[in-house]
User: Fold this.
Amino acid sequence: MAMETTDAPAIIEHIQQSMTFTAYDVRWVPCSAKFVVMGIYPKGTGVMQVYDMELGELKLVSQCEKPKGFKCGTFGASSLEDRHLATGDYDGKLAIWDLERTDVPVYQVQAHKSILNSIDGCGGLGIGGGAPELATCSRDGTVRVWDPRVREPVLSLEPAEGEEARDCWTVAFGNSYNDEERVLAAGYDNGDVKLFDLRTNTMRWETNVGNGVVDLEFDRKDIEMNKLLVTTLESKFRIYNMRTQHAERGYSYLSEKAHKSTVWLGRHLPQNRDIFMTAGGNGGLNIYKYSYPDTLTDKDAEGREVGNIGSVELLNARVLASQPIVAFDWSPDKEGLAVACALDQTVRVFIVTKLHKY
Assistant:
């Protein structure tokens, strides 16, 4: 159900800029009004551009071209002082860049045999306990965890002998609320979602959501697991209550239809974990609010705890682009400021109003 439109958050386009390449990821540079766009030129080479916002216009601060297209990036494992960007490319390479000097990477390793689909970072930017780590996944079916100080993966999760390698499309860290605990969720093209416990090196949970998993995100990385947002093909997303795991039923969830096409991604508002934006194959953005149930758990027939799931409310929706929106990032510093890239080769900065009311 959508709320009364007069009080609804408005999605207002602030700046739109055309580009000569296809962007696949965009990230705000922490503690700044700058953002970095990563993508691929038609000839297949990679491009990284840093933009600054000045008086309602975008100013190109720097750009660099690399041999292979960029697919994804994160600042999640960097310190606030360095603000180093970690990227994954079409050749399966993981690299870390100082955006002031992009001629050579600070760190580079051949992470996978084929395209590196997704990357996430944890332990940097003052978010999450424990050492800074990066997680990557690839079409080759592997999921790997990296410590940026060493060249070999800390952990490599690979398909079993003789098992068909499923294309892993997305990875996300969570549960990093102290120096020991950390989990990694991975989503695959066949609808599998797997949750690995990085402290005990075990598979904590797995399920299948029925459609290819395009994106995963915990509402916060640095708290005990609370909610996991899973977006998929066939215009669906799910929210799992990750507080209570039942021996047979696993985690309880709700499922919603959105965008009438692929839900490319979901991003929680950094300043309020119960508000999130989804971006769709229809070129649209939907903003939702999650409400908790009256009681977080119930008992089953045998007296074991079962998690309850709340509800979501569509606060507003707006179609911004003629092509799918494939990259989106909330500003960590300014509530409601966001940037998105669509396959129509545009980057858009926009403002979402009235978020403080929720």
Observations:
- The chain has a mean pLDDT of 92.
- DSSP finds no helices and 30 strands in the chain.
- The longest strand covers residues 57-66.
- The two ends are 16 Å apart (CA to CA).
